[in-house]
Amino acid sequence: MRDQFGREINYLRLSITERCNLQCIYCRDSNDCFKAENELTAAEISRIVAQMIALGVNKVRVTGGEPLVRKDLEDIIADIARHDEVKDLCMTTNAQGLEKRVWDLRRAGLQRLNISLDSLCKERYSKMTRGGHLSDVLQGVEASIACGMQRVKINTVLVRGVNDGEIDDFIRLAKEYPLDIRFIELMPIGKLGEDASRRITSGEVLEGHPELVRIAPRDPNQPSEDYAGEGFRGRVGFISPVSHKFCADCNRVRLTSDGHIRMCLGHNEETDLRAALGRPDEVLLETIRNAVFNKPCGHAFETMFHSQRAMNRIGG
Questions:
Q1: Which neighbouring-strand residues pair with 239?
Q2: Are 140 and 149 in contact (CB under 8 A)?
Q3: 139 SS3 class
Q4: Single pTM value for the model
Q5: Which residues contact 219 (CB under 8 A, 6 or more apart)?
Q6: 311 falls in which pLDDT band (50, 70, 90)?
Q7: Closest C-alpha to 115, from 154, 74, 73, 67
């Protein structure tokens, strides 16, 4: 499946809920209540995913909100995993309650995990997430490694004046443990993200860490630029969509939990698939194909873009 610019689109970011058990400061601006009845059912997700696989998708990342709030998460994972064409099935989670379910998720077919962790300080973590428990995350990381996940990545959104004093501590984790620590640049989505003074670039971090040397990526299409130092068991990655635009190699599209295909985080254009769900598979497939073909050339973050959805309503 190719878009109008010839990029091969084979990666689906699948949001299965807008609901979340946390309210991270860069993700949600309000206490909005998101209702389960607005979400695609497991059967609807299964049908859309099957059509996207038929069009060439072979990598699926399950996201939210927080995927763990759905009681049928294991069933959704198992349904995706039954497709032999899917070579990479992963999930992004805040790990609140992950320890209790990670073994079942692994048995269902989940291969990898990205775990959001923005502070190693208990009080700061609770403040940034508005109520999260750091101990849950650390226990979830340990259980994920123990159950045989192929790889565990830690996603850390750097916010100037909030958690930038912990950069050294996170890099130390990559040195001492077989973890990928990925620093994610604050995106201009939501009130906090639109304050450019809060954004920390990879260049700023690397300037203070000359021991980090650029290394080859695991996946040529990954957005992360990876680094390591002598004796590192893991690696340090930087995902910098604003300061280091990687749109030319973008291979992903997003399906929101309410049934819209969104081609780009930095554009508001979406295609609603709910009407097509009531039509034959051929209509649904063609609707998806047309939406993907019209994927824009690149994001519009540099043009005062304002997202009509908060991050938890897009799927990250």
A1: 184
A2: no
A3: helix
A4: 0.92
A5: none
A6: low
A7: 154
Could you report the per-residue pLDDT of 182-207, keeping only the tens digit for each? 999 998 877 787 888 999 999 999 99
Q: Cα–Cα distance between 18 and 24 in angstroms, integer?
A: 13
Q: How far apart are CA 260 and CA 32, in angstroms?
A: 20
What are the C-alpha distances in Å from 183 to residues 15, 53, 123, 222, 227? 22, 30, 20, 14, 11
User: For 133-171, how does the pLDDT look when each residue is reduced to its tens digit (9 = 90+)?
Assistant: 999 999 999 999 999 999 999 999 999 999 999 999 999
Residues 59, 8: Cα–Cα separation, whole Å: 12
pLDDT (tens digit, 9 = 90+) per residue, 238-271?
Answer: 998 877 777 888 899 999 999 999 988 767 789 9
Contact 297, 245 (CB under 8 A): no
pLDDT of residue 193: 78
Tell me which residue of 58, 115, 118, 117 sits closest to 92, measured CA to CA. Answer: 115
Q: Are 73 and 101 in contact (CB under 8 A)?
A: yes
Q: Starting from the edge strand earliest in sequence, which strands make up the sheet with 151-157, in order?
A: 213-214, 225-228, 235-239, 180-184, 151-157, 112-116, 88-93, 59-63, 11-15, 252-255, 260-262, 270-272
Paired tokens of 169: 């501590």
Looking at this protein, which amino acid is placed at residue 143? A
- Average of per-residue pLDDT values in the chain: 92
Cβ-proximal residues to 244 (8 Å cutoff; 6+ apart), any chain: 202, 225, 238
The whole-angstrom separation of Cα 71 and Cα 13 is 20
Could you tell me the two tokens for 61?
């990342």
Per-residue tokens: 249: 């190699």
